[in-house]
Specification:
- The chain is of the alpha+beta class.
- The protein has a single domain (about 5-200), classed as Ribosomal Protein S5, domain 2.
- It is built from 4 helices and 9 strands.
- It has helices spanning about 55-65, 85-100, 155-170, 185-200, and strands at about 5-10, 25-30, 35-40, 50, 70-75, 110-120, 120-130, 135-140, 170-180.
- Strand 2 (about 25-30) and strand 3 (about 35-40) form a beta hairpin.
- Helix 1 (about 55-65) runs parallel beside helix 4 (about 185-200) and helix 2 (about 85-100) packs parallel to helix 3 (about 155-170).
- It is globular and about 45 Å long.
- Residues about 1-15 have low confidence and may be disordered.
Length: about 220
Protein backbone atom coordinates (compact mmCIF):
# COMPACT_ATOMS: atom_id res chain seq x y z
CA UNK A 1 0.00 0.00 0.00
CA UNK A 2 1.12 3.55 -0.61
CA UNK A 3 2.91 5.15 2.32
CA UNK A 4 1.71 8.53 3.52
CA UNK A 5 4.13 11.27 4.49
CA UNK A 6 5.19 12.06 8.04
CA UNK A 7 2.81 14.40 9.79
CA UNK A 8 3.80 16.65 12.66
CA UNK A 9 1.54 17.41 15.58
CA UNK A 10 2.03 21.18 15.47
CA UNK A 11 0.66 23.95 13.30
CA UNK A 12 1.03 23.69 9.52
CA UNK A 13 2.14 20.06 9.81
CA UNK A 14 5.38 20.91 11.60
CA UNK A 15 6.87 18.62 14.27
CA UNK A 16 6.34 19.80 17.82
CA UNK A 17 9.58 20.98 19.42
CA UNK A 18 10.60 23.61 21.92
CA UNK A 19 13.26 26.14 20.89
CA UNK A 20 16.57 25.37 22.59
CA UNK A 21 15.34 21.98 23.86
CA UNK A 22 16.30 18.65 22.39
CA UNK A 23 12.84 17.22 22.22
CA UNK A 24 10.28 16.56 19.52
CA UNK A 25 7.01 14.78 18.83
CA UNK A 26 5.65 13.34 15.61
CA UNK A 27 2.66 11.34 14.47
CA UNK A 28 2.19 9.25 11.35
CA UNK A 29 -0.90 7.57 9.98
CA UNK A 30 -1.26 5.25 6.98
CA UNK A 31 -3.85 2.69 5.94
CA UNK A 32 -1.74 0.15 7.88
CA UNK A 33 -0.62 1.92 11.06
CA UNK A 34 -1.21 4.89 13.34
CA UNK A 35 1.78 5.92 15.48
CA UNK A 36 2.72 8.75 17.86
CA UNK A 37 6.25 9.24 19.23
CA UNK A 38 7.88 11.71 21.62
CA UNK A 39 11.63 11.95 22.25
CA UNK A 40 13.30 14.15 24.86
CA UNK A 41 17.07 13.70 24.76
CA UNK A 42 17.65 15.57 28.01
CA UNK A 43 15.07 13.79 30.16
CA UNK A 44 15.57 10.42 31.81
CA UNK A 45 11.92 9.72 32.54
CA UNK A 46 10.97 6.08 32.17
CA UNK A 47 9.96 5.02 28.65
CA UNK A 48 6.30 4.44 27.86
CA UNK A 49 5.77 2.09 24.93
CA UNK A 50 2.71 0.33 23.54
CA UNK A 51 2.74 -0.99 19.97
CA UNK A 52 0.66 -4.12 20.45
CA UNK A 53 3.83 -6.25 20.17
CA UNK A 54 5.08 -7.04 23.69
CA UNK A 55 8.58 -8.17 22.69
CA UNK A 56 9.07 -5.14 20.44
CA UNK A 57 7.83 -2.92 23.28
CA UNK A 58 10.47 -4.51 25.52
CA UNK A 59 13.20 -3.70 22.97
CA UNK A 60 12.07 -0.09 22.56
CA UNK A 61 12.02 0.29 26.34
CA UNK A 62 15.68 -0.80 26.36
CA UNK A 63 16.43 1.86 23.75
CA UNK A 64 14.96 4.65 25.89
CA UNK A 65 16.22 3.39 29.24
CA UNK A 66 19.81 2.69 28.24
CA UNK A 67 19.89 5.58 25.78
CA UNK A 68 19.23 7.93 28.70
CA UNK A 69 16.34 9.75 27.00
CA UNK A 70 12.59 9.95 27.41
CA UNK A 71 10.82 7.85 24.82
CA UNK A 72 7.08 7.58 24.37
CA UNK A 73 5.70 5.35 21.62
CA UNK A 74 2.04 4.61 21.03
CA UNK A 75 1.07 2.64 17.98
CA UNK A 76 -1.67 0.61 16.36
CA UNK A 77 -1.18 -1.54 13.31
CA UNK A 78 -2.61 -4.33 11.19
CA UNK A 79 -1.18 -7.08 13.36
CA UNK A 80 -3.76 -9.47 11.94
CA UNK A 81 -1.75 -9.26 8.69
CA UNK A 82 1.67 -9.44 10.37
CA UNK A 83 4.00 -7.32 12.49
CA UNK A 84 6.12 -5.97 9.63
CA UNK A 85 4.13 -2.78 8.97
CA UNK A 86 4.09 -1.77 12.63
CA UNK A 87 7.80 -2.45 13.20
CA UNK A 88 8.93 -0.67 10.04
CA UNK A 89 6.67 2.35 10.56
CA UNK A 90 7.82 2.78 14.16
CA UNK A 91 11.40 2.77 12.83
CA UNK A 92 10.55 5.41 10.24
CA UNK A 93 8.85 7.70 12.74
CA UNK A 94 11.35 7.17 15.55
CA UNK A 95 14.24 8.09 13.27
CA UNK A 96 12.45 11.24 12.09
CA UNK A 97 11.53 12.26 15.63
CA UNK A 98 15.08 11.71 16.85
CA UNK A 99 16.40 13.82 13.97
CA UNK A 100 14.05 16.64 14.98
CA UNK A 101 15.16 16.38 18.60
CA UNK A 102 18.86 16.50 17.67
CA UNK A 103 18.43 19.84 15.91
CA UNK A 104 21.65 21.11 14.34
CA UNK A 105 23.73 18.66 16.47
CA UNK A 106 26.00 21.44 17.75
CA UNK A 107 28.42 20.25 20.41
CA UNK A 108 27.63 16.52 20.28
CA UNK A 109 30.37 13.89 20.38
CA UNK A 110 28.98 12.46 17.13
CA UNK A 111 30.86 9.12 17.18
CA UNK A 112 30.44 6.16 19.53
CA UNK A 113 31.27 2.47 19.52
CA UNK A 114 31.17 -0.36 22.03
CA UNK A 115 30.83 -4.09 22.55
CA UNK A 116 27.85 -5.10 24.66
CA UNK A 117 27.45 -8.54 26.28
CA UNK A 118 24.26 -10.23 27.38
CA UNK A 119 24.91 -13.65 28.85
CA UNK A 120 26.28 -15.82 26.00
CA UNK A 121 25.81 -13.09 23.37
CA UNK A 122 28.19 -10.29 22.38
CA UNK A 123 27.27 -7.53 19.92
CA UNK A 124 29.47 -4.78 18.46
CA UNK A 125 27.88 -1.41 17.67
CA UNK A 126 29.43 1.60 15.93
CA UNK A 127 27.51 4.83 15.33
CA UNK A 128 28.19 8.06 13.46
CA UNK A 129 25.60 10.85 13.65
CA UNK A 130 26.76 11.72 10.18
CA UNK A 131 23.81 13.11 8.26
CA UNK A 132 24.31 10.16 5.88
CA UNK A 133 22.05 7.12 6.29
CA UNK A 134 23.77 3.74 6.15
CA UNK A 135 23.13 0.43 7.91
CA UNK A 136 25.44 -2.54 8.19
CA UNK A 137 23.53 -5.31 9.95
CA UNK A 138 25.32 -8.57 10.53
CA UNK A 139 23.13 -10.31 13.09
CA UNK A 140 22.30 -13.81 11.97
CA UNK A 141 19.35 -15.10 13.93
CA UNK A 142 18.52 -18.60 12.77
CA UNK A 143 15.71 -18.67 10.24
CA UNK A 144 13.96 -21.33 12.29
CA UNK A 145 14.09 -19.23 15.48
CA UNK A 146 10.88 -19.31 17.46
CA UNK A 147 8.97 -16.00 17.17
CA UNK A 148 9.15 -13.91 20.32
CA UNK A 149 6.11 -12.75 22.25
CA UNK A 150 2.41 -12.84 21.45
CA UNK A 151 1.50 -11.40 18.95
CA UNK A 152 4.68 -12.79 17.44
CA UNK A 153 7.80 -10.77 16.69
CA UNK A 154 9.99 -12.49 14.09
CA UNK A 155 13.70 -11.92 14.91
CA UNK A 156 14.38 -10.88 11.30
CA UNK A 157 12.11 -7.85 11.77
CA UNK A 158 14.82 -6.17 13.84
CA UNK A 159 16.80 -5.51 10.65
CA UNK A 160 13.76 -3.88 9.04
CA UNK A 161 13.38 -1.65 12.08
CA UNK A 162 17.01 -0.52 12.06
CA UNK A 163 17.01 0.10 8.30
CA UNK A 164 13.93 2.32 8.58
CA UNK A 165 15.41 4.07 11.61
CA UNK A 166 18.78 4.98 10.08
CA UNK A 167 17.23 6.33 6.88
CA UNK A 168 14.91 8.64 8.79
CA UNK A 169 17.48 9.65 11.42
CA UNK A 170 20.28 10.16 8.84
CA UNK A 171 22.83 8.21 10.86
CA UNK A 172 25.44 5.59 10.01
CA UNK A 173 25.00 2.45 12.10
CA UNK A 174 26.92 -0.83 12.18
CA UNK A 175 25.57 -3.72 14.25
CA UNK A 176 27.53 -6.98 14.25
CA UNK A 177 26.98 -10.15 16.26
CA UNK A 178 30.26 -11.68 17.41
CA UNK A 179 28.58 -14.71 18.92
CA UNK A 180 25.36 -15.74 20.61
CA UNK A 181 22.68 -18.42 20.47
CA UNK A 182 19.57 -17.15 22.22
CA UNK A 183 17.60 -14.86 19.85
CA UNK A 184 16.18 -12.88 22.78
CA UNK A 185 19.65 -12.23 24.18
CA UNK A 186 21.08 -11.38 20.75
CA UNK A 187 18.37 -8.84 19.93
CA UNK A 188 18.35 -7.32 23.40
CA UNK A 189 22.13 -6.88 23.29
CA UNK A 190 21.70 -5.15 19.91
CA UNK A 191 19.10 -2.69 21.17
CA UNK A 192 21.01 -1.99 24.37
CA UNK A 193 24.21 -1.51 22.36
CA UNK A 194 22.60 1.02 20.03
CA UNK A 195 21.06 2.74 23.04
CA UNK A 196 24.43 3.16 24.74
CA UNK A 197 26.01 4.36 21.49
CA UNK A 198 23.27 6.97 21.07
CA UNK A 199 23.73 8.09 24.66
CA UNK A 200 27.47 8.62 24.11
CA UNK A 201 27.25 10.12 20.61
CA UNK A 202 24.55 12.63 21.54
CA UNK A 203 26.26 13.84 24.69
CA UNK A 204 26.96 17.56 24.38
CA UNK A 205 30.64 18.28 25.05
CA UNK A 206 31.14 21.64 23.29
CA UNK A 207 29.43 24.19 21.11
CA UNK A 208 30.65 23.59 17.58
CA UNK A 209 29.12 21.30 15.00
CA UNK A 210 31.53 18.31 14.85
CA UNK A 211 32.25 18.40 11.12
CA UNK A 212 34.71 20.27 8.88
CA UNK A 213 31.71 20.93 6.60
CA UNK A 214 30.06 22.98 9.35
CA UNK A 215 26.87 20.96 9.00
CA UNK A 216 25.66 17.44 9.77
Amino acid sequence: MTRQSLTGQGAAGQPVSAPGDRRASRSRETKETRIEITVDLDSQEAPVVDTGLPFFDHMLEQLGKHGGFRLTVRGEGDLDVDAHHTVEDVGILLGATLADAMGDKAGIRRFASLSLPLDESLVDVALDVSGRPFLHYSVDCARDSTPLGNPAFEPQLAEEFWRAFVHSADVTLHISLRYGRNPHHVLEASFKGVARALRDALTVTGGDIPSTKGIL
